[in-house]
Design goal:
By secondary structure, the protein is an alpha/beta fold. It has 33 helices and 17 strands. An 8-stranded mixed β-sheet has the order 7-8-6-5-9-13-11-14, with helices on both faces. α6 runs antiparallel to α7 and α6 runs antiparallel to α27. It is found in: Cell membrane. Pathway: Glycan metabolism; plant cellulose biosynthesis. Pfam families: Cellulose_synt, zf-UDP. It is a multi-pass membrane protein.
């Protein structure tokens, strides 16, 4: 534990006048930054048209170099790049004044200055804000010399580095900033290039090209118009001979249209994002200075190591320990919610193997850094490897990993035979977790303490085992409760400002994934408003055709990118980097709203009458908000410096926290203390409460290791969350098995934003169930969670109106909780074609030429929408089609059961579970794909397939018997029936298996239900007119 990060929360407060008079750029809508002297940046000195500095520089370098309002040519401001045409009198060289440059001959501090930079959206940025565990620094680009960037030069070969510098010089020549005749000093050129790189933003937003997105939007609008005319025709022309079927079909079609609107319009403005990792290093990793990258805590959750193989969890932990990030800033917490001694021993073996694995990964820069997946790659592992000893060291490491696997397998085989007296630890004491439902909290630190070094003598990241206390009679809230326990433990032991949670089967596939996220989270202005950065989920071990849409490419590559253009993607449960302050239930920083624009065409008294009342109300609201929001922020900053007791003691008292309020008057103090009652909000832990007040994370100076461990045990006790806001407003939210959707929804309702990061190399990879039964069971659990949210107070249909959740974002959340209910109309719509074929009726009357146009237009708009969506997203046609097929398969099986199971659970309190048991397996590659497991979920889709097949046979037989005239109406009926069969084909293929080993019970039940339904229908035949009384016919005999 001696390796824990400690440090003070030293940071400079920005000048108070900068936020009080900020203006909005009329070009991009962002706030206008400030100059070095604190004055507001003014682009045009003639008319004063408000334009931020990035827009001003872009207009000068890429545009017509004129003010948008008065068309006056922009003059060059100090510190801005020169362009061709600048006046000669403004050519005094001020490049050295823009950044702090080391002078090797004169190191006097008199020549040092403080530099400020502007972020991509034009906000002022003070570089002293990010250094939670180190001293204050003057600037990002300050104190730069050629030797400071040797590490950056080493990242490229000599040819690559020379090529980059030459490209930069060409760009500078085009702007008139560089002259070939003056370029004799190569070292100075490289310094200038690195200085220019350091001032650039660490990421940029890449909108979809208008040539791809504009036709897509036009077709969406056209499809909406066509839908209106289509429904007008369907409602005004009922099929009287099959009125019940017609009514059911119209209701189903209206529901499908509403579902399409909820799914489609959140994808209106999809975007991409690019990151620049080298600029992140230039800003925060300066040679000769302490590393200023923010610390991060990894969370790995597991429950039962017998169902979640320990070797997979070990690979996930090893990939975390080997990430490309400063080791002193990485901590890995593993939650064992099953209190298993098997996982405890596995982590002990993993920590020992990591001493050799981590330096091997970093020395040879291998990817991925999970040994199981690295050694199983079918690629040329010698590519780009130049170290002479690589082959020898790789063979030795592979042999050591195989020995490591043997030791883990021995632990697993031993765990299968539990002794009667329970497990005993190596020191002879009984294992505290022998009773998994009644045991104390346990914490073990394997790495990160003094002496836990790798084979090269370097420090390793921290590895901490955590098993929270469990007692009978307490509600533990499954995974959400375990994650909240990890939040509290990590806050007490390391308190990193950011947290990354992974499932135990999701390993780090890209060692630079954390740096990708930090490009957003450490942005000086955007990072403060982000609650999390979500990475897409990618999977290993899935068959090439992805029969059951396990990759879920349509959701991750289309829907999530669309949400990124609104308020951010939803939280999907894994592969997410969180801002700790957002999980604590705090609101994001409030930026001043853009002032309402008024026109000069109306008299002033009219504007006053129309807008005066609302302005007064908003002004009063602003006063109240600043009192309870702004003062509390200031209070947290004060406490971050004043609540620490100087000395060796690490325990804190609430009295010390209250001392932070001494600077306020009685009214402000009473308002703040009444607003934030810390004990009722966070629980009875002064150490944890003190950690929540440190915005940038880090531990106070003089912390005592043993005291922190005792406090960490206290915060994972089973009664700690009682009468607090944990699970209600703080941390992972309780109330649904899909706690991820609920947690992200609460953050977005508070006004936080999230981002979607899609690096070229997938950041994380996991495993997914590839056989039919397990896949349906997984979808059932997700759908059940959505139904629980729909029936709770957090339902997006009525929760948090008047808040900060954007309407299109609300549409997306509504879609995530109502989609299981689509199973009811989908089941009815898949049954209607078979009924039509069996009875000879049809839901659509005879079409005339005009009506057929709307049907053709609707089908064409659906096809064109899909094609254009694939065009801008890059998703393959096969992935899109698999997604459409599984939407029907899951809808008529798992989603349907989830609706009834959720209604029984929430309304009647009956908890029903659909268990899955294995029947047969195959040992070949993708053998699990053909593994069949019996489950009740298989009956409805099987019944639908048989019913539609019987209907097709009956319809064709009837057409043959009735002659040529009956074939025309038959084609419409066959189209809908074949639509059902084609969508259910992957289900039928999975049901039959490789050797047609379908259980008898499935076939019997399905044939029985389909036959009974068909016979009853034919016997009753509700569409025949019912006659009362005798049938009277003219006999033809004259009486």
């Amino acid at each position: 534990m001696a390796g824990f990060v400690t440090g003070s929360d030293t940071r400079d407060e920005p000048p108070p006048n900068r936020h009080s008079a900020s203006k909005i750029c009329k070009v991009c809508g962002d706030e206008i930054g400030y100059k070095d002297n604190g004055e507001l940046f003014v682009a045009c000195h003639v008319c004063g048209f408000p334009v931020c500095r990035p827009c001003y520089e872009y207009e000068r370098s890429e545009g017509n170099q004129c003010c948008p309002q008065c068309n006056t040519r922009y003059k060059r401001h100090k510190g801005c790049p020169r362009v061709a045409g600048d006046e000669e009198d403004s050519f005094d060289d001020d490049f050295d004044d823009e950044f702090q440059v080391k002078n090797h001959q004169d190191d006097s501090a008199d020549h040092r200055i403080h530099a400020t930079t502007n972020s991509e959206n034009g906000d002022h940025y003070n570089p002293q804000q990010w250094h939670p565990n180190g001293p204050a620094f003057s600037s990002f680009a300050g104190s730069v010399a050629g030797k400071d960037f040797e590490a950056d030069k080493e990242a490229y070969s000599a040819e690559e580095w020379k090529d980059r510098v030459e490209k930069w010089k060409v760009r500078q020549e085009k702007r008139g900033l560089f002259n070939k005749e003056d370029g004799n000093n190569d070292q100075a050129e490289e310094d200038d290039y690195l200085l220019a790189e350091a001032r650039q933003p660490m990421w940029r937003k890449v909108p979809i090209p208008s040539s791809k997105i504009s036709p897509y939007r036009i077709v969406i609008v056209l499809r909406l118009v066509i839908l209106m005319f289509f429904f007008r025709f369907r409602i005004l022309t009922p099929a009287y001979d099959a009125f019940a079927l017609w009514l059911i079909s119209v209701i189903c079609e209206i529901w499908f249209a509403l579902s399409w609107i909820l799914d489609q319009f959140p994808k209106w403005q999809p975007i991409n994002r690019e990151t620049y990792l080298e600029r992140l290093s230039l800003r925060f990793e300066r040679e000769g200075e302490p590393n200023r990258l923010a610390p991060i805590d990894f969370f790995v959750s597991t429950v039962d190591p017998l169902k979640e193989p320990p070797i997979i969890t070990a690979n996930t932990v090893l990939s975390i320990l080997a990430v490309d990030y400063p080791v002193e800033k990485v901590s890995c917490y593993v939650s064992d919610d099953g209190a298993s001694m098997l996982l405890f021993d596995t982590l002990s073996e993993t920590a020992e193997f990591a001493r050799r694995w981590v330096p091997f990964c970093k020395k040879h820069n291998i990817e991925p850094r999970a040994p199981e997946f690295y050694f199983s790659q079918k690629i040329d592992y010698l590519k780009d490897k130049v170290h002479p000893s690589f082959v020898k060291e790789r063979r030795a490491m592979k042999r050591e990993y195989e020995e490591f696997k043997v030791r883990i397998n021995a632990l697993v085989s031993k765990a299968l035979k539990k002794p009667e007296d329970g497990w005993v630890m190596q020191d002879g004491t009984p294992w505290p977790g022998n009773n998994t439902r009644d045991h104390p909290g346990m914490i073990q630190v394997y790495l990160g303490s003094a002496g836990a070094l790798d084979v090269d003598g370097k420090e390793l990241p921290r590895l901490v085992y955590v098993s929270r206390e469990k007692r009978p009679g307490y509600q533990h809230h499954k995974k959400a409760g375990a994650m909240n326990a990890l939040v509290r433990v990590s806050a007490v032991l390391t308190n990193a400002p950011f947290m990354l949670n992974l499932d135990c089967d999701h390993y780090v596939n890209n060692s630079k994934a954390v740096r990708e996220a930090m490009c957003f989270l450490m942005d000086p202005n955007l990072g403060k408003k982000l609650c999390y950065v979500q990475f897409p989920q990618r999977f290993d071990g899935i068959d090439r055709h992805d029969r059951y849409a396990n990759r879920n490419v349509v959701f991750f590559d289309i829907n999530m990118r669309g949400l990124d253009g609104i308020q951010g993607p939803v939280y999907v449960g894994t592969g997410t980097v969180f801002n700790r302050q957002a999980l604590y239930g705090y609101d994001p920083p409030v930026s001043e709203k853009r002032p309402k624009m008024t026109c000069d065409c109306w008299p002033k008294w009219c504007c006053c009458c129309c807008c005066g009342g609302s302005r007064k109300k908003s002004k009063k609201k602003g006063v109240v908000r600043s009192l309870f929001g702004g003062l509390y922020t200031k209070k947290k900053k004060m406490m971050g410096k004043n609540y620490v007791r100087k000395g060796s003691s690490s325990m804190f008292d609430l009295e010390e926290i209250e001392e932070g309020l001494e600077g306020y008057d009685e009214l402000e103090k009473s308002s703040l203390m009444s607003q934030k009652n810390f004990e009722k909000r966070f629980g009875q832990s002064p150490v944890f409460i003190a950690s929540t007040l440190v915005e940038d994370g880090g531990l106070p100076e003089g912390t005592n290791t043993s005291s922190l461990i005792k406090e960490a045990i206290h915060v994972i006790s089973c009664g700690y969350e009682e009468k607090t806001e944990w699970g209600k407003e703080i941390g992972w939210i309780y109330g649904s098995v899909t706690e991820d959707i609920l947690t992200g929804f609460k953050m977005h309702c508070r006004g936080w934003k999230s981002l979607y990061c899609m690096p070229k190399r997938p950041a994380f990879k996991g495993s997914a169930p590839i056989n039919l039964s397990d896949r349906l069971h997984q979808v059932l659990r997700w759908a059940l969670g959505s139904v629980e949210i729909f029936l709770s107070r957090h339902c997006p249909l009525w929760y948090a109106y008047g808040g900060k959740l954007k309407y299109l974002e609300r549409f997306a959340y509504i879609n995530t909780i109502v989609y299981p209910f689509t199973s009811i109309p989908l089941l009815a719509y898949c049954t209607v074609p078979a009924i039509c074929l069996l009875t000879g009726k049809f839901i659509i009357p005879t079409l005339n030429n005009f009506a057929s146009i709307w049907f053709m237009a609707l089908f064409l708009s659906i096809i064109v929408t899909g094609i254009l969506e694939l065009r801008w997203s890059g998703v393959s046609l096969e992935d899109w089609w698999r997604n459409e097929q599984f939407w029907v398969i899951g809808g008529v099986s798992a989603h349907l059961f989830a609706v009834f199971q959720g209604l029984l659970k929430v309304l009647a309190g009956v908890d029903t579970n659909f268990t899955v048991t294995a029947k047969a397996a195959d040992d070949s590659e993708f053998g699990e794909l053909y593994l069949f497991k019996w489950t009740t979920l298989l009956i409805p889709p099987t019944t639908l397939i048989i019913l539609n097949m019987v209907g097709v046979v009956a319809g064709i037989s009837d057409a043959i018997n009735n002659g040529y005239g009956s074939w025309g109406p038959l084609f419409g009926k066959l189209f809908f029936s074949f639509w059902v069969i084609v969508h259910l084909y992957p289900f039928l293929k999975g049901l039959m298996g490789r050797q047609n080993r379908t259980p008898t019970i499935v076939v019997l039940w399905s044939i029985l239900l389909a036959s009974i339904f068909s016979l009853i229908w034919v016997r009753i035949d509700p569409f025949l007119p019912k006659q009362v009384g005798p049938i009277l016919k003219q006999c033809g005999v004259e009486c």
